[in-house]
């Protein structure tokens, strides 16, 4: 069973200022504005690109003027002004003076302008039942279970950095190495997530990006097999993320996505201004090993129990593992595991298949403890 915790929505990260200031909670320029407006200027269906959100300015009448797509109004013979965009748009005189102008875009109060979906923290499957003297679980068992994580592509709240971009393999699967320490291999992804949390917590508390990245490195290497992770690359990646306006969950998903441990479920609009999308998010199911992700993708279509729900929705990915009965029902002869074989080319395919069977048996033994 997965216990899910709802975290508060992100604060006003609404301007391409220093990402460090944004992450530390310094009030960005847009947050100081009383009114905001947004417009899809490039016609791509959202206002998530640079220059598509702006602070409104005051007018002599007390109304607010959106600078986006603003045009001067035309005066008739009697001196009355009309908006060339249509009579439905009001001509307003800037408080600083000048020619009246109009815009097709509305302004909204800064305190209510942005609606942002809360970030869901999915802790994954925890130990949720009693065990006997031999460590066998009395409760439900999930095999190759995943964790729902979201990352955000380039948009206003990420200071226009792509926090989903593939930055290369950081975490190694380990399933093709020695048959020892299977529980340690399974714990690698958890160690990475612990490291990302340590880095983000340190950064928000006032540490430099370099200090926070080092904190991540120390947290990652505690209790895991150092051969399973490229630690120097991980530290550099954390540093890049912190300086790009990405948050903790962006980092977690980014590391595992780059290491081919995540199944992408889809994209949704996670933040809006007056119904206009200013930030999208990508929902993923991320697993502890690359092989787990492959078996999930290849195995789910074989099981009727997944037919109705599939992978869930982008905003709420369905990442549960297989029950022992479901796992035993899988036909591995119908699975295309070539992606996995390519990572362990040093072994013959027959050896890999034997090794994989032993690994899965070991995983089963680990899962019931």
Short account of what is shown:
It is built from twelve helices and 15 strands.
How would you explain this protein's 3D organization?
The chain is an alpha+beta fold. 30% of the residues lie in helices and 15% in strands. The strands form six sheets. The protein has a four-stranded antiparallel beta sheet. Strand 4 (57-58) and strand 5 form a beta hairpin. The two termini are 15 Å apart.
Characteristics:
alpha+beta; 4-stranded antiparallel beta sheet; 12 helices; elongated
List the helices and strands and how they pair.
Elements: E1 5-6, H1 19-23, H2 29-32, E2 35-38, E3 53-55, E4 57-58, E5 64-65, E6 71-72, E7 74-75, E8 81-82, E9 101-102, E10 108-109, H3 110-113, E11 114-116, E12 120-121, E13 147-151, H4 182-186, H5 188-204, H6 209-221, H7 231-242, H8 248-258, E14 262-273, E15 276-286, H9 290-299, H10 324-329, H11 338-341, H12 349-367
